[in-house]
């Protein structure tokens, strides 16, 4: 008999997004949620419901974020070296949308599920 | 006939013969006079009787009087509960202390001699057979002797109680007057202090008089089957007090012809003070003790399950029963026998259709039970759709009621628009001006049919005659009520007291209890108040002990934050 286990672990990833210019704005193509001034229990992506970090809630199809490899549910740990784990929602937004930066380098944490197939002892 | 307005709750009316019409002798005959006496007598034996205000007006004088009162004629106890015969009347049980109770107490007290009086575990003894005669309230002649006899004993009891009261009242005056009359010349003159004491005696006696009247001599609310133990005790107390004072007076003052008049006056004042304190004790025992709620009584009507909860304090079972009845008449919806049973179409005869064949052994001994059991078991297992019928029948009935009700409401609303109050300034032809009665008659016709149909559907038509509807309409018109206010009486079954007197003429209730009815309420006591067609089952529960603890909340500690859930796109 075969036993399948699902192992969940998180790994960090560095993502570099080149902002897209649309008119007068520089857009990244994703949406964020979370922050220390928000209600962490409403976060559908976090494993720990007291986690007040910044999470990616949506990624626009074909946008710069998707091209760079950002996925829904990623937790943003740093933006260009600035810590994002203990910021308010508005501070996070500001750090991501600085007008004089064209490239943002994010350090994100992603949870992943991997199936591990194990042979049972018996067989 | 008994005064119609008297709502007398006569417990065990018949046997105890407690009921005594306040003014008339003709009270339903209580044939059970001897029984009542027995009951009464039995009471005092009980040491734990804790009837605080033994109101048992009615009971008291009835039973005790005849016997014991005669025996204890010499015992003139102060009638704390001296109820004057007038109290017989009907309802008020508690506070009025018709002398009867006292007297009964006395009589019961002296019941040591009456050893042959049986136990009175339940008050009901003998009631059952008499309850049937209750219905013959109209047969006064038959009851005449009984009632006369009972009234006689009651009067006796009241008279004794009154005598005791009078004795207690006049004693201080006698104390004051006797020295003046007998050895006036030898008395030392006593100036202003004595005058002050005289005034105080006068006012205290006046207060005592008024207080005793208020506490003991008002009309009782009901007739109780048994004596009030507390009243009896108070009577004994007063009697002992007065007797001991007379003893001292006779020995110390009369015999020795004491010259110090001031001392005599002070002696008399001290007696009045002692009497006032006994009165105070009576107030506390008879009135105040039952005010703090200690028990919750649940009263359930056996016929249709209507139930209510009441909070009472320390009361004896009989007084709790009166309390329940007083509240029953204005809390419980009126008993409507037409609404009790499921329609016949719903209840099918399930037992039919089974035939029992016994195979094998033929012992006829337990055949019948075995057979019936088999039939019952088979009937239970058979697929039964009567609940379906019941459900649809009910739904249909409800729909019909709602339709009729809608028609009624519309008819009444329209009828009310036809009349209006005459304003002062308006000038109208005198022929057009109507008084409320005529106005009611004028608009009644348009709503009569809808009203009648609605009452028929809700099976209320026995409770409302055309005359009563007209009267109510007149009443509502006079007081400028809206159609909705007029209809409030008909759309829902109201409490019993709202209907015509004959509907709640049931003044005869029977108290059935396993414990002696002068026992106090305790957790778990159950008693039943019976009438011919239904009964009220009352069970007692003690109110739990509450542990209240405090928690201090700083007003500044109330702080709040917003629950935010923003999503920003970047």
From TrEMBL, chain A:
<keyword id="KW-1003">Cell membrane</keyword>
<dbReference type="GO" id="GO:0098887">
    <property type="term" value="P:neurotransmitter receptor transport, endosome to postsynaptic membrane"/>
</dbReference>
<dbReference type="GO" id="GO:0043113">
    <property type="term" value="P:receptor clustering"/>
</dbReference>
<dbReference type="Pfam" id="PF00595">
    <property type="entry name" value="PDZ"/>
</dbReference>
<dbReference type="GO" id="GO:0016055">
    <property type="term" value="P:Wnt signaling pathway"/>
</dbReference>
<keyword id="KW-0879">Wnt signaling pathway</keyword>
<feature type="domain" description="PDZ">
    <location>
        <begin position="14"/>
        <end position="111"/>
    </location>
</feature>
<dbReference type="GO" id="GO:0019901">
    <property type="term" value="F:protein kinase binding"/>
</dbReference>
<protein>
    <recommendedName>
        <fullName>Tax1-binding protein 3</fullName>
    </recommendedName>
</protein>
<keyword id="KW-0963">Cytoplasm</keyword>
<dbReference type="GO" id="GO:0098609">
    <property type="term" value="P:cell-cell adhesion"/>
</dbReference>
<dbReference type="InterPro" id="IPR036034">
    <property type="entry name" value="PDZ_sf"/>
</dbReference>
<dbReference type="GO" id="GO:0045211">
    <property type="term" value="C:postsynaptic membrane"/>
</dbReference>
<keyword id="KW-0539">Nucleus</keyword>
<keyword id="KW-0597">Phosphoprotein</keyword>
<keyword id="KW-0472">Membrane</keyword>
<dbReference type="InterPro" id="IPR050614">
    <property type="entry name" value="Synaptic_Scaffolding_LAP-MAGUK"/>
</dbReference>
<keyword id="KW-0007">Acetylation</keyword>
<dbReference type="InterPro" id="IPR001478">
    <property type="entry name" value="PDZ"/>
</dbReference>
<dbReference type="GO" id="GO:0045197">
    <property type="term" value="P:establishment or maintenance of epithelial cell apical/basal polarity"/>
</dbReference>
<dbReference type="GO" id="GO:0005634">
    <property type="term" value="C:nucleus"/>
</dbReference>
<dbReference type="GO" id="GO:0005912">
    <property type="term" value="C:adherens junction"/>
</dbReference>
From TrEMBL, chain B:
<keyword id="KW-0472">Membrane</keyword>
<feature type="transmembrane region" description="Helical">
    <location>
        <begin position="197"/>
        <end position="216"/>
    </location>
</feature>
<feature type="compositionally biased region" description="Basic and acidic residues">
    <location>
        <begin position="38"/>
        <end position="49"/>
    </location>
</feature>
<dbReference type="GO" id="GO:0005886">
    <property type="term" value="C:plasma membrane"/>
</dbReference>
<feature type="compositionally biased region" description="Basic residues">
    <location>
        <begin position="64"/>
        <end position="82"/>
    </location>
</feature>
<feature type="transmembrane region" description="Helical">
    <location>
        <begin position="267"/>
        <end position="288"/>
    </location>
</feature>
<dbReference type="Pfam" id="PF06638">
    <property type="entry name" value="Strabismus"/>
</dbReference>
<comment type="similarity">
    <text>Belongs to the Vang family.</text>
</comment>
<feature type="transmembrane region" description="Helical">
    <location>
        <begin position="156"/>
        <end position="177"/>
    </location>
</feature>
<feature type="transmembrane region" description="Helical">
    <location>
        <begin position="228"/>
        <end position="247"/>
    </location>
</feature>
<protein>
    <submittedName>
        <fullName>VNG2A protein</fullName>
    </submittedName>
</protein>
<dbReference type="InterPro" id="IPR009539">
    <property type="entry name" value="VANGL"/>
</dbReference>
<keyword id="KW-1003">Cell membrane</keyword>
<feature type="compositionally biased region" description="Basic and acidic residues">
    <location>
        <begin position="106"/>
        <end position="116"/>
    </location>
</feature>
<feature type="region of interest" description="Disordered">
    <location>
        <begin position="28"/>
        <end position="130"/>
    </location>
</feature>
<keyword id="KW-1133">Transmembrane helix</keyword>
<keyword id="KW-0812">Transmembrane</keyword>
<feature type="compositionally biased region" description="Low complexity">
    <location>
        <begin position="118"/>
        <end position="130"/>
    </location>
</feature>
